[in-house]
Amino acid sequence: MDARINTSLKNDQNGNGSSNFDLGIVVFESLKKHSNRILQYLADTDETDTQGQVLKRSIRTAMKLKEKGITKDDIVSSCSHNHKNSIIPFIASLFLGIKTAHFDPNLSHLETIHLLKLIKPRIIFVDLESLPLMEKCLKESQVNTELVVFGESEKYSNFNGYLEPSVEEDKFRPVAADNVMETAIILFSSGTTDLPKGICISHYGILGQILKKSMKVSGNNKNNSNNNNISLLYTALYWISAVVMLLKGITEGCAYVVCKQFDPAATWRVIEKYKVTSAFLVPYRAREFLAARQNVDTSSLKHMATGSAPVTKKLMDELREALPSAAVVQCYGQSEALGMIASFNIGDPKEMELQKIKPLSSGKVLPKYNWKIVDPVTEKVLGPNERGEFRYKIDYQMNGYYKMDSSSAYDSEGFIKSGDIAYYDEENCLFIVDRIKEVFLYKGWRIFPAVLEGILLTHPAVEEAVVIGIPHELHGYHPMGIVALNKGYEDVTPEDIELYVRQRVSDDQRLRAGVKIVGEITKTVTGKVRRYGMKQMVLNGDI
Predict the structure, then answer these.
(1) Which among 258, 278, 266 has a CA at the least distance from the CA of 323?
(2) d(CA 536, CA 543)
(3) What is the distance between the alpha carbons of residues 127 and 105, in angstroms, rounded to a whole number?
(4) Domain coordinates in residue numbering, the chain
(5) Which residues, including other chains, have CB under 8 Å from residue 520's CB and lie 6 or more apart?
(6) How far apart, in whole angstroms, are the C-alpha atoms of residue 308 and residue 312?
(7) Under a CB-based contact definition with an 8 Å cutoff, are residues 193 and 435 in contact?
(8) Residue-wise pLDDT tens digits, 3-46
């Protein structure tokens, strides 16, 4: 544990508060310390943005929020694609000890309405493209909030008004949290099998993760002005990956490249132009990235990570071949744990050799975690190569779920139930197999959708696949495959694909509910299949 975190927590437990140490203060002091370093490379406008410039805009925004009477009892939100100012309301809120909860512009109306009703934000900062979504969802949810627009609007306040200079800004100091265990950020579960839940993350939890030396991402790239890591990641602040990348960039004096949206071909050019040293792409984006390969210099790239969805050996091999200078790894994490739980150590040659031998492994669980694999029915702790639920415990885990009874998220020993079916081998390499909620029974036999999806993906016609359980009054569930086809395979029929799977599985694993061919498999922005939504569309007769 970081010594400063430990001291702060002890002081807090002794009733002395945390007046000299909390997330807002750490971010404020880090921005001052690294004021001359570049934090944001703005690829869409070819600008740079230093930590000092970000600090100034965040102070002005914080003063405006305070002037409007927004307090620690309120929640500040945003719904925006990535751009120069999309991070500012978040940082400003940290300075005031105000909780934040962010929306992703790619969320569905149903999810957005659900989250609005859940958190009821006092104010939402929104870009022009996301404004129609938010207006419609606010009306349908009947949640009363103020909208502030990044851009020009005659109907709503413009964010530029928050950036006006003040004679008092040089005197501004951040407000300390009353307790380091207070919730600082509300993140949301991915919503692949159900509607998203609000995950409450404390000041202590975030600081414990971002200040751990073992988690540092700094590199030795001599071709950038910071002489540090330059990261590339496309997710918005709705996702833990973006929150951690931003805060580690601030505290470590590193930079990252800001892109409004993912463009596979442009990503190659961005890596070359900005000398990107580390990047994260979810599997479906990694495939698009490889398909749009450009003849550019990627030698700066030392670390390419993927995760958040199943990978294939083919994908990992192709990434290694296309990016010879980069260590290519699959990682495993959860928002409830504030990020990464398992990965191969790119600084350890033995582990990188293991990654090549075991490309479908998520690596080794990080040392700071206590963990176990258990039978979710009997609670029996399992050994190597036995499949069960992965459970973990860490000092920095979530406070619980917002406005929900969270007791069912933990077992009797305080371990978080990940909901993931996994196993580990004799070398302690972790393999994520499936989600418990996605596993279903046929005549008492467990059906693992990820296994069947892996078989479907070996068919040359299948580009993407998802397997769901269709209720059956006698057998429990019948497996159904939903697939999107590669170009040039339009003549392939559902029966062809069903037969292909039948020839490769035992009788109980057959796709008894058949196969449906669709134009695309709907996914979250991080590449996780919206399994719940796909199943509802099938049951409703929409596909």
Answers:
(1) 278
(2) 9
(3) 9
(4) 440-539
(5) 464, 484
(6) 13
(7) yes
(8) 333 433 434 333 333 334 589 999 999 999 999 999 999 999 99
d(CA 76, CA 90) in angstroms, rounded, equals: 8
Whose CA is closest to 375, among 390, 388, 386, 392? 388
Q: Is the dihedral of CA 124, 127, 130, 131 positive or negative?
A: positive
205: amino acid identity, one letter: G
Q: Average pLDDT of 148-156?
A: 94
Q: Return the SS3 of 58.
A: helix
pLDDT digits (tens, 9 = 90+) for 315-343: 999 999 999 999 999 999 999 998 899 99
Could you tell me the two tokens for 379? 């609670």
Per the CB < 8 A criterion, the answer to whether 220 and 245 are in contact is no
**Which helix (DSSP H) or strand (DSSP E) does residue 67 occupy?**
helix 51-67
Q: In which element (H, E) is residue 121 found?
A: none
330 neighbors 361 (Cβ within 8 angstroms): yes
Please answer whether residues 268 and 91 qualify as being in contact, where contact means their C-beta atoms are separated by less than 8 angstroms. no
Contact 51, 34 (CB under 8 A): yes
Q: Are 481 and 515 in contact (CB under 8 A)?
A: yes
CA pair distance 232, 229, nearest whole angstrom: 10
Q: Take residue 361 and report the two structure tokens written for it.
A: 């492994």
Report the DSSP pairing between strands 75-79 and 38-42: unpaired
Pairing of strands 38-42, 255-258: parallel
CA 387 – CA 383 distance, rounded (Å):
9
Determine the average pLDDT of the residues in 193-211: 84
Work out the angle at residue 229's Cα, subtended by the Cα atoms of residues 226 and 231, and round it to the nearest 5 degrees. Answer: 115
State residue 453 phi and psi, 5-degree precision.
-65, -40
| Stated pTM of the model | 0.81
Domain 440-539 sits in CATH at 3.30.300.30
User: Cα–Cα distances in Å, from 266 out to 41, 78, 320, 324, 469?
Assistant: 15, 26, 19, 19, 39
* pLDDT band of 526, cuts 50, 70, 90: low
> By the 8 A CB rule, do 330 and 359 touch?
yes
Helix (H) or strand (E) holding 135: helix 131-141
Please count the other Cβ atoms lying within 10 Å of the Cβ belonging to residue 506: 8
